[in-house]
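User: Here's a protein and a ligand (copper (II) ion). What would the complex look like?
Assistant: Let me lay out the input and then the predicted complex.
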Amino acid sequence: MRSVLAKLLFCTALVLLAGSFDALAEVRERNLYWAPEAATVGAKKIDTLLNFIFYLTAAVFVLTQSVYIYYLVKYRKRPGSKAYYSHGNNKLEIIWTAIPTAIFLGLVIYSNRLWSELHSPPPEGSVKVDVVSYQFGWDMRYAGADGQLGKVDVRSYSVDNKFGLVPDDAAGDDDFSSTELVIPVNKPVHIYLHSRDVIHSFYVPQFRLYQAAVPGRTIAWVWFEPTRTGNFELACSQICGSGHYNMKAPIRVVSQEEFEKWQAGKINAKAEEAKAAAAARTLRTSTASTHPAGDAPRNEESKL
Ligand SMILES: [Cu+2]
C-alpha cells in the first residue's frame, strides 16, 4: 500500500514538474480539467460534437445507474418475499432500441458531415505555409513577394536545401524560412506538411489538429482558421527518436497588420541576402578572370 502511494506521489510530482516548464506556449490557468480552450473555427465545431457526446453519455450513465440502484434496493431479498419471473415487454424493448439507434444515426450523419467539411479544399486566399519536420525540429517556408511557394521534390533534400526546393523553379527563389509558425488571426491557413526523415506528427491541441507527416509525401489537406491571437506550441506527437521529447516549435497567431509587418521584414531580409550572395558571386567571377590559373601566387612560386 505504501509503495503504491509513493508511486502516485512521484507521478504527481512529475506531472507538476512538466507543467512548470511550459514557457513557450499558452499557459493554462483555467479549464485545467477539460480540453484546452479551442482556438480555430474547426476546433469549436469538434468541441460541440465532443461535448454533446460527453454530456449525453454522462446523462445516460447517471440515469441507468440510478434506476439500477433503486431496483437493487427495492427488490432486495427480504423474509417472506417471493421472486417474480418476467418474460420481457416487447413495447419497452422496441422503445429502448429505437432511441439509441436514432441517436447513433444522428451522430454518424453529423460527424461525417463535419469530417468532410474539415477536409474540404482550403478557401481561396489562404496563407500557404510549407512545414517540414525532421529529427528533431520544424522548418517553415513562406512564399516571397511573388506570393507563390516554389515546387519541392524529396530528391532535392540536402544540407543546403532543407526544403527540397526544385532548382529550376524560380518561384522558390524568394521563399523565406522561419523556425516559428507565424500566422494571422481570422484567416485560413493552408499547411503543406513534409518530413525529411521519419514519420513525425503535426499536433496542436488548441487547434484540435493531429496529422502525421510521412517522408516522401506532401500532405496538403490540412487547413484551419485561427479565431484568437496568442502563443501556442507545435509539438511532434509521433515518437520519432531520442530527441522526440524536445521536438517543438513556437506558433504565434497575430493580427493581420502584425503578420504583414513580420512578412515584409522577412521578404526584405531575404532580398538583402540574395543581393549579398549575387555580389559575392560577381566578386568570385571577376577574381577568377584576373587570375585564370586560379591559384596564381603558388604558380609564380613554382616558377622560381
Ligand atoms: Cu518527431
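Summary: Confidence is low (pLDDT under 50) at residues 294-304.
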